[in-house]
Amino acid sequence: MARTYGEGTGSVAALAGVSAAFARGTFTAVMGPSGSGKSTFLTCAAGLEPPTSGRVVLDGADITDWDEERRTRLRRERIGFVFQGFHLMPYLTAAQNVGLPLRLAGRRPDRVRVSALLERVGLGERAGHLPAAMSGGQRQRVAIARALVADPAVILADEPTGALDSATAASVLELLRGCVDELGQTVVMVTHDPVAAAYADTVLFLVDGRVAGRMDRPTATAVAGQLARLDEWVA
User: Fold this and answer.
1) ABC transporter domain location, by residue (predicted)?
2) What pTM was estimated for this model as a whole?
3) How far apart are CA 97 and CA 93, in angstroms?
């Protein structure tokens, strides 16, 4: 998969050719320096924009040439998103935020499922609270429950712990790990943090829009060491 912005001599290859597959029920971290193509990779994988060349296949369906309406429906129904900035609606309660993807899809949220998801993320007693009345970690937990509500094919997480302190980040990462181990979810997470990457099954390293390497069963120390040598890998 490749993604180029602009034309002619002014064009920029954000992705210069990335090939990756993510098996169901696995946790993958995507890492690399600034400008390596991490965000563009996630954007293309989510169907937010098509690749310039190559294909994007999600849950067995080739979505590359789908029109925007169809891709929007896909994102509502088959992809769960977790962002660094939480992206909760400030005027909706925790329970209403969790059920929002279903309402946008024209479905009535199942109150039992919404309650069960909030219980799962440790916020059963905060269902009626607005985001302003919750901590950053609690808001991210609501975001994870929201990502799970439609039983998506994949959860895409973009720096989900970037705005959290280390202790709160660890609890959020354990929750994402549990989504994989206990619910069989597939998680793809962009991160710059070796400690966060160590929660994954595999780390995919990007440099200059290309895959520079991968690591299975990562540890924080091993990931940090590989990040320091990415230039050597590309060379």
Assistant:
1) 2-233
2) 0.92
3) 6
The SS3 of residue 86 is coil
Closest CA to 78 of 40, 45, 119, 52: 45
Judged by DSSP in three states, 212 sits in strand
Compute the residue count for the chain.
Answer: 235
| CB neighbourhood size of 92 (10 A) | 16
Residues 44, 79, 216, 83: is their CA dihedral positive or negative?
A: positive
Residue listed under structure tokens 């005027």? 91
Per residue in 182-213, pLDDT (tens digit) is 999 999 999 999 999 999 999 999 998 899 89
Separation between Cα atoms, residue 48 and residue 60, nearest integer Å? 18
pLDDT at 106: 86
Which residue has 């962002």 as its token pair? 83
Q: Structurally, what CATH architecture does the domain formed by 2-234 represent?
A: 3-Layer(aba) Sandwich (3.40)
Q: Which of 222, 165, 156, 151 is nearest to 189 (CA)?
A: 156
Residue-wise pLDDT for 124-176, tens only, equals 999 999 999 999 999 999 999 999 999 999 999 999 998 899 999 999 999 99
Q: In angstroms, what is the C-alpha Rg of the chain? A: 18
Say if residue 235's pLDDT is above 60.
no
> Token pair of 125, please?
């007693």
Domains of the chain, by residue range, sit at 2-234
Of the candidates 127, 168, 118, the one whose C-alpha atom is nearest the C-alpha of residue 145 is 118
Amino acid (one-letter) located at 15:
L
